[in-house]
Design a protein that fits this description.
globular, 6 strands, 4-stranded parallel β-sheet, 4 helices, two-stranded antiparallel sheet, alpha/beta
Amino acid sequence: MHSHSSPTEEYRRQIVVDGETIALEVLDTAGAEQFTALNEVYISNGHGFLLVFSLTHEASLHELDNIRQQILQIKANEPDIPIVVVGTKMDLYNEREVTSAAIQELVTRWKLPVYETSAKKNWHVNDVFEDLTRQMRKRYPNEVAKKRKKKDCLIM
């Protein structure tokens, strides 16, 4: 991997969900289209996915759909894959390109929860992790929750 491409970051995040403290291992891939080869490994090992797009960049939603399809393809034999879709930059009202109506349409079409967040202002960031953690706990009741986080490269 060349030094100019965004590296994959791995970090831990502790979260309290329903009174229980859970340590998540988060893998931030910063835009999937950079590593299709590695992608398959990440996806097949991942227990939960945060698909992140920017509310100020409509094209990032289409890229997200490609990643979503990839996850469903690689995990075709696994039902109920924990996935949460996250729109960031909610605080930049004037630059917004993705409408609430478009998001509602996504929820209906993809049947996935979609959250609007602002990392800068820390709006609804915990909701995202809580939702995904609950999904993972339900889906993998006997395993320590592990999370794979996908980030759209246009965001950060």
